[in-house]
Design a protein that fits this description.
single chain, about 425 residues, alpha+beta, Uridine Diphospho-n-acetylenolpyruvylglucosamine Reductase, domain 3, Alpha-Beta Plaits, 10-stranded antiparallel beta sheet, 5-stranded antiparallel beta sheet, 12 helices, about 25% strand
């Protein structure tokens, strides 16, 4: 029988035993009986973060919205819920999350565990919405942790790489539902980004910049703006870029059928903040991804550094996207205590070639303290991770407290935690 693979198809899971529990009690029994176990969400991780040769526990059947507390403005979900379904549930009841990632297809818990994010100068990554977690710990017990009950360590628990236990429930902050309009501008010169960073990234609630680096411009810039009481109509040009007159796909020449509606057509937050529709295959389908976050103050210089590698990137890159993310207090977030710009790379599915390019790219970004996305492809050495993720030693101690025998660790997590 063929082994199971991740969404991109580049990771073949090594698990000796697969589990798909439908209740927390089943999760507890699996964890109690396992020597080593990892938790798997929607398989949108491009490296071996979720892999194991022992027991692999998929949370996809733990997919209920448990409770919406309208007074406290929180929602509690099980560990396998995806953003797409949660968005529909919340909007139908008049509520929303503060932000969403490009894909509504990913699990909430998996996205938070890896510090996945949306876009926006004032928007923290998706994990910043988490206020409480229910964990099945290494002993098989169920424990609940929150910012209120564990203020000293909760900021270290949310972005957890699956190293603290199996997250069976998560509680998130919600707010009143809102509508969004999406407008796209074509051909924004890099010069505008370099010279007017605050103005171009702050032009809407969420702004995404797409380029293939072949020319010194962003061939598309996507503006996502909350609709208020005052009528808004964008100008035909914006810093020299022109407003698009038809819906576009971030990849040149691809039909926009799978993309969320543009051209300023208002719609619910959960149908505009993502780039892609839930009912379609996300993005290209067969691709690999990497992402590196640099402190916002370094963004123009980092842009120029990556531009110098355009010849190296040309044959293996599909498209890049730049997005801003607000600072937060989460220990393993790349935006810990500092606002960042994420440099995202969507690669052709040729991992061998991608891995020859990554060291060159990481070297070019090293002087800007670039931090990799935990769930995507990178080759950053563990010692370097410890330098740029300054709270890694604290997280290591937390992991050893929660899981002294390493039940929830694998080679990937051991590599992250073992460097001195």
């Amino acid at each position: 029988m063929a082994r199971e693979r991740n969404w991109a198809g580049n990771v073949e899971y090594d698990a000796a035993r697969w589990h798909a529990p439908t209740t927390v009690d089943e999760v507890r029994q699996i964890v109690r009986n396992a020597d080593r176990v990892r938790s798997l969400g929607t398989r949108h991780t491009f490296n071996d973060l979720a892999n194991t040769a022992a027991d692999l526990l998929s949370t996809h059947l733990l997919n209920r919205v448990v409770a919406l507390d309208e007074e406290a403005r929180t929602v509690t979900i099980e560990g396998g819920v995806r953003y797409g379904e949660l968005g529909r549930f919340l909007h139908a009841r008049g509520f929303a999350l503060h932000n969403l990632a490009s894909l509504p297809h990913i699990s909430v818990v998996g996205a938070c565990a890896t510090a996945t994010h949306g876009s926006g100068d004032r928007a923290g990554n998706l994990a910043t919405a988490v206020t409480a977690l229910e964990l099945v710990t290494a002993s098989g017990d169920v424990e609940t942790f929150s910012r209120a009950s564990h203020p000293d360590v909760f900021s270290g628990m949310v972005v957890n790489l699956g190293a603290l236990g199996v997250v069976t429930k998560a509680t998130l902050r919600v707010e009143a539902a809102f509508d969004v309009r999406q407008d796209v501008f074509e051909d924004l010169a890099f010069e505008a980004f370099e010279q007017h960073l605050d103005d171009v990234t702050g032009a809407a609630d969420s702004v995404s910049f797409f380029t293939d680096w072949k020319e010194p411009l962003f061939h598309q810039v996507w503006h996502k703006r909350r609709i208020g009481e005052e009528r808004f109509e964008p100008t035909r040009t914006w810093f020299g870029a022109r407003r698009a007159t038809s819906d576009l796909h971030p990849l040149r020449g691809f039909p926009a059928t799978s993309c969320t509606p543009q051209l300023g057509v208002p719609g619910p937050w959960h149908e505009r903040l993502p780039h892609f529709r839930l009912e379609f295959t996300p993005s290209v389908g067969e691709e690999l991804q990497s992402e590196f976050f640099v402190p916002r103050r370094h963004a123009p210089s980092a842009l120029r550094a990556v531009r110098e590698l355009r010849a190296v990137l040309a044959d293996v890159l599909l498209v890049s996207e730049l997005r801003t993310v607000a600072a937060d207090d989460l220990w393993l977030s790349p935006c810990f205590k500092e606002a960042c710009v994420g440099f995202h790379f969507t690669w052709r599915r040729d991992e061998a070639r991608v891995r020859t390019v990554l060291p060159r790219l990481q070297e070019a970004l090293a002087e800007f303290d670039a931090r990799p996305h935990w769930g995507k492809l990178f080759t950053t050495a563990p010692r370097r991770l410890r330098e740029v993720f300054v709270k890694l030693p604290d997280f290591q101690r937390l992991a050893e407290t929660f899981d002294p025998t390493g039940k929830f660790r694998n080679a990937f997590v051991e590599g992250v935690l073992s460097a001195r």
